[in-house]
Amino acid sequence: MKIAKEQLKLYTSQNHDAYSIIFSPLIEDLGLSPQVTEEVELVLLLLVSAEMLANRQLDCARKLLNLCINFSLSAGNPVQRAVYYFAESLRKRIDKGIGIPTIASNIDTVNPNIMEEVLMDPRTDVIETEQMLPFRKVTQFTGIQAILDSVKSFKRIHLIDLGIKTGSQWTILMQALVGNGECPPEHLKITAVGTSLTRMQEVGNRLTSFADTLHIPFSFKTVVSDLRHIRKDLFESKAGEVVAIYSDSRLWTLLAWPNHLESLIQVCKSLDPCVMVVTEIEANTNTPIFIDRFNEALFYYSAIFDSLETCIGWNHQYRAVAQGVYIGRIIENVITSEGEEMAHRHEKLGSWRALFERFGIEETELSHSSLYQAKLLAEKSTCHGFCSLEMDGKSLIIKWKGTPIKSLSAWKFH
Fold first, then answer.
1. Looking at the structure, do residues 188 and 303 belong to the same domain, yes or no?
2. Are 128 and 32 within one domain?
3. What is the CATH number of the domain that holds 180?
């Protein structure tokens, strides 16, 4: 991806038309292997297609996209898969813009409610196999360690999960609470936020059973609400309990509605938590400038496709689910939609810093124990040579072959 982008930038800087790079011998002069050369040429086709679409040269863009789709495969190598899904989405953007009925593909139209159901369903292959990727383990264990560091000395603990998914991270915390050599808490309460009461109750039942085996006094509460409509009075807070908030890739869901996002932060602040741990995708697709959004998404999801290939393998059952049901839909939504229709938006850590700072919320250091957990998990990963950790100020960035994937930050409220 980077080679193709650099070649396009170099060529256009010499006042050449982007379209003519396809017929240029520049790629042949790079000394690349035949396979890599083919991949660079394929990505160049895609990049030029996007540039031409952005410049309203729709006929030429469509012709190049047809070539991209013909030369790429949804079941090919990571580069071919990325090109396929982005080319399909670019073609749909052209069709949508000029009123042509969409050609059927194996990328379904995104539905944010369905997507949340997929992500929240503890039985789904998306979540089950997500654990096979190093990013999930690193952010989950490190985030829980950051919460544990803040609450372990308190007797009554109230944990608020803004999107509980399977809840497996809380079993880790429970074990740590009873195994830290101190007295276990007098009471542990977890409040889950989500739109599916049935699925949250299933998670609650499993957590209750697990707490019973550890002899931890435990209660599980639910707040059935979209994050856009969260209010303080929906949470049962009691005197004497310490509150901690866990937000695993949840804040981005409100980027299309800035007022609701700020309202959520205000509600979190009013609950007076000792800490709020935030995990988010480290990419900026929340921009109205189409070509910038395209480039950012292309680099990010190309890294995701590559990580799937490396960590899971090409023939695993998850790949079809991850690509078609999840990643493919996100790519299509990012590329074809504008305004509030673009449900999938992401911001980098700097934007979240600015948001929290406006509310007087202070970024806090991740403890040595939490960073040790992160390093240990990255090193133990089967693909540890490609997954790297980097500090950005007081927060942690998880990368794949140098491409930022996730950020993990902790925040103190005053």
1. no
2. no
3. 3.40.50.150
Tell me which residue range forms the domain holding 59: 2-106+284-341
For residue 249, the number of C-alpha atoms closer than 13 Å in the C-beta half-sphere is: 16
Whether 112 maps to a domain, the answer reads no
Instruction: Report the alpha-carbon distance of residue 89 to residue 91 in Å, rounded.
Output: 5
Residue 401 identity (one-letter amino acid): K
SS3 percent helix, strand, coil of the chain, rounded to 5, is 55, 15, 30
Number of domains in the chain: 2
pLDDT in tens, 327-346: 888 999 999 999 889 989 99
Do 409 and 349 meet the contact criterion of CB atoms below 8 Å apart? yes
Segment 13-42, tens digit of pLDDT: 665 565 666 666 555 566 778 788 888 889
Residue bearing tokens 């109750």: 201
pTM (global) more than 0.85: yes
Residue 111 lies in a domain: no
Residue 309, Cβ neighbours under 10 Å: how many? 17
Statement to judge: residues 296 and 149 lie in one domain: no
What residues have CB less than 8 Å from 257, skipping those under 6 apart?
Answer: 228, 340
- In which residue are the tokens 């997929």 written? 118
- For residues 43 and 1, is the Cβ–Cβ distance under 8 A? yes
